[in-house]
Amino acid sequence: MGYVYLYYGTGGGKTANALGLALRSVGHNKKVVIIQFFKWKKDIGEYLIKDRLAPNYEIYQFGREAWLGEEDKTAEFGGEKFNVECVKSHDKELAKKALDFAAKVLR
Fold it and tell me: How far is it, in rounded angstroms, from Cα 83 to Cα 106?
């Protein structure tokens, strides 16, 4: 039996903390499954490394492009500017899919 860690809340450090623990676990030949809520970018390090750390490291993202918070606003990432929106019903559906997927993984 393994462990389930849930990192949530505002502010930074959630992903870094989870990835540090994941890397140590993979180093000990343990299987790690990372499920990211409200994430969609495929050009981030934790996603790009997945093939090199397979089969012990898996990462899944459940989010749509443009979501970055609860208010409509403009954000910048990697030199690109884009509009972001508040949480919509589709975001809630994706979060439910992520939870259902987590339950499946745990079984």
Answer: 35
